[in-house]
Amino acid sequence: MRKYVVGSVPTVMYIPEYISPAEEDLLLKNIYQAPLSKWKTLKNRKLQNWGGVVHEKGLLAQQLPSWLKTVTNRIYEESKLFPSAINHVLINEYLPDQGIMPHQDGPAYMPVVAILSLGSPVVMDFVPHPNLESTEQSSENDTQDMIHEPSPPEPKIPSKYLPFSLLLMPRSLLIFKDMAYSGYLHGIKDSEDHCYDEAVNATNGPSHDAGTLTGLKNDGEDGGDKVIHRTTRRISLTCRLVTKVHKHLIKI
Ligand SMILES: O=C(O)CCC(=O)C(=O)O
Ligand SMILES: [Fe+2]
């Protein structure tokens, strides 16, 4: 995995074209074949929860469907970064003007996450946690989401970590863990235009292939102002591992 490290935080890895267009289509087909009741609509996106219900005290586990296991097992085996098989997947759907506020993933998960992107490209921003000391505490949270909103921004220690951004192209896999997981907040702006000038993986992006990829434009004559214009939805699969699993599986 070391060859996929991008940027200056060594626990951030990005693999372009992790799945093929045919695999992307198959995943999308399965996602949109799920019953409508599987979707939970939030203010700024909608999501499907697979693998069971995550509680502070652990996972009320439900088997992942085989179409998800194919991809989660591959990530588990190839990355060698999860101590056991991935057992939980959140599928988020974002419309072009939707995003996700800067947050830290909840404490129920192992501090490693793999995010597979489908559909429209987006930029994900990482900012150092405003109060590193508060990352130990568990605050109230939305158990469906299992995300933590940042505590009030009153930095106790100046962070030596710098913000950074990543360009998440369709079919790519992003993995981040440890310091990138617990020392940073990650989020996606809820705007239709995302600038990827500063993205640490911009060379993996559209610059090599400008014009052939939809939604990407280079406004600057000499490479400045690289902008993604989001015209379609983005779907992401957030794959994680909850180590504490309740014994009684939910039967479907
Ligand atoms: O959609 C994404 O890429 C990020 C999703 C995320 O951060 C989450 O579900 O916790
Ligand atoms: Fe997250």
From TrEMBL:
Indicate the segments forming the Fe2OG dioxygenase domain, all copies: 85-243
Compartments, record wording: Nucleus
Matching Gene3D superfamilies: Alpha-ketoglutarate-dependent dioxygenase AlkB-like
User: Which InterPro entries does this chain map to?
Assistant: AlkB-like (IPR027450), AlkB-like_sf (IPR037151), ALKBH6 (IPR032862), Oxoglu/Fe-dep_dioxygenase_dom (IPR005123)
Q: Which Pfam families is this protein grouped with?
A: 2OG-FeII_Oxy_2
Region ranges (Disordered): 129-156
Name where it mostly resides.
Answer: nucleus
Spans of biased composition, class Polar residues? 132-141
Q: Which GO terms describe its molecular function?
A: dioxygenase activity; metal ion binding
Q: Which keywords does this Swiss-Prot/TrEMBL entry list?
A: Dioxygenase, Iron, Metal-binding, Nucleus, Oxidoreductase
Keyword Iron carried by entry? yes
Among PROSITE patterns, the record links this protein to: FE2OG_OXY
The protein's name in its UniProt record: Alpha-ketoglutarate-dependent dioxygenase alkB 6
Q: Which family does it belong to?
A: Belongs to the alkB family.
Looking at the UniProt record for this protein, which Gene Ontology cellular component terms does it annotate, in alphabetical order?
nucleus
